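Re: [help] complex structure
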Amino acid sequence: MSETMSEFSAWFKDTFKKCYCEQGNLIDENQFAEIVQLVLDNEADEESRSIFEQKIRTCVKSNMSYEKEKSIKLEIKKKLCEHRAEMPNNLVSTIRKSVDL
Amino acid sequence: MSEETEQEQQARRQDYSEKEKTEIFDGEFMPHVDSMYNFAFRLAFDEDDAKDLVQDTYLKAFRFINSFERGTNAKAWLFRILKNSFINEYRKKSKQPNKVDYNEVEQYYNSDDVDESFTTDLRVETVQHMIGDEISGALNGIPVDFRTVIILSDLEGFTYEEMSKILDIPIGTVRSRLHRARNMMKDKLASYAKEMGYNK
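Output below.
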């Protein structure tokens, strides 16, 4: 897991830098969305998360982008989870029969 | 991702008794049948095919149960078998005409030539107004391997590392594929919203 984290840590730093201009303004919302997703998916390490959180506290545009990404992700997830296919009643018994249990 | 050698696999092979096999099957495999069916249905779009895929997965899981290490991630192990069955067998005999050669799509989206600048302006309120059917329709409209990462991550809650093992792809590819998949989905939802006049 630590190898994974360091892999994303380097990617995070590099990508984060590309998202902002010299004045610190957000200039690449698409790349920023990729960073937001890493954070929302709980895959960013502590250091990356801390850099991210500091930025969204001070940059209105980054904060709005984060909140929007978070709300859309939650809404999509909620509706997809509610819209699950109903499992056929006999599937469990058919499986058990097929493996002779 | 490190490749496991045949000797290493052999060394990890278990030798379960019949009683233990039944315990593992009932206690560790069967609790995931509902998730497995949903995954299969979202891949195949057909109740009978989804049922066949799940049955086939459980048959294989039972046949190769000695390759499963008790107490490890049974759900990820089963999802990996189902995904491989879908790719290797189902796609060949699919009832649905396969209009797109997925390998070509995959190569295209994973190449450096991809225009990453998605400009979808999807509003939160738009998604809130949509019903599950419409969201599912958008998910079903994206290529299968992109659809798969959304299902595994957002519906089934797998981590990137678990997805990397299920899909046999590097973890960095999981991250970038998920991002592209979500962009595709937003794009579909935005187009749909525009068609339906949701944005007015």
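Chain A touches chain B at residues 1, 4, 7-8, 11, 30-31, 33-34, 37-38, 41-43, 68, 71-73, 75-77, 79-85, 87-88, 91-92, 94-95, 98-99, 101 (CB under 8 Å).
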